[in-house]
Specification:
- The protein is globular, with a radius of gyration of 18 Å.
- The protein has a single domain, classed as Hypothetical Protein Pfu-838710-001 (Beta Barrel).
- The termini are far apart.
- It is of the alpha+beta class.
- It has an 8-stranded antiparallel beta barrel, surrounded by 4 helices.
- The chain has 6 helices and 8 strands.
- Strand 6 and strand 7 form a beta hairpin.
- About 35% of the residues lie in helices and about 40% in strands.
């Protein structure tokens, strides 16, 4: 019985990865850091002063999926289904390194129907383990992304933070410095790291 279950989980993991590879996918190396507890208005003024352009402000709803034994989490991977305005996106990420920055392989595909995609994932043996909503304000400068995230609802205890994404660690640190931050303030954290950090701070 245990062997059958393990085999089923392996198949589920395999097919989720295959799904992102076959349907209009793209693959990228995600290189990013988080800077905690920022003053967004002050940083927006700094970004504008160095030439950054505001590209969007939107609410994002994210559903996280895993197998019953959390095989994706154990493998430093995640499956995420995200709703942004009128667009739904399925993502598979695999963490590569998190020493100086969070570096991950990312497969991503736009899907036409969120509920149908959710049903497909559940039919593959996955279930939704977390749901998060946030307000994201995004800027871009020279292919570097600056995204202010403020979580809502049950995760609103997490203060607003800035995420910087670039094509190299040196570029990340260069722009963090331009905004007044040092390397130590650039956290190579995942969303789970963020939740764990602030959950512990909540404990009296």
């Amino acid at each position: 019985m245990g062997t059958k279950k393990q085999h089923h989980d392996v198949i589920s993991t395999h097919w989720v990865a295959k799904l992102t590879l076959k349907i209009g996918h793209y693959l990228m190396d995600e290189i990013e850091v988080k800077i905690l507890e920022v003053n967004r208005k002050e940083l927006e003024n700094r970004l504008i002063s160095i030439g950054a352009k505001k590209i969007s402000q939107k609410e994002i709803e994210t559903l996280f999926f895993d197998s019953k034994d959390y095989s994706f989490k154990k493998a430093n991977s995640l499956v995420r289904l995200r709703k942004e305005k009128d667009r739904s996106i399925l993502t598979f990420k695999k963490l590569i390194d998190n020493k100086k920055a969070k570096i991950a392989k990312e497969y991503e595909v736009t899907v036409s129907d969120l509920e149908s995609t959710k049903n497909i994932l559940e039919s593959l043996g996955l279930s939704m383990h977390a749901k998060m909503s946030k307000l994201r304000t995004s800027y871009v400068l020279n292919d570097v992304k600056f995204e202010f995230d403020k979580y809502l609802d049950e995760y609103d205890y997490i203060p607003e933070f800035l995420e910087i994404e670039a094509n190299s660690i040196d570029t990340l640190h260069k722009y963090a410095k331009l905004l007044g931050f040092n390397v130590e303030e650039c956290k190579p954290w995942s969303t789970l790291d963020l939740i764990n950090y602030y959950s512990k701070k909540k404990i009296p």
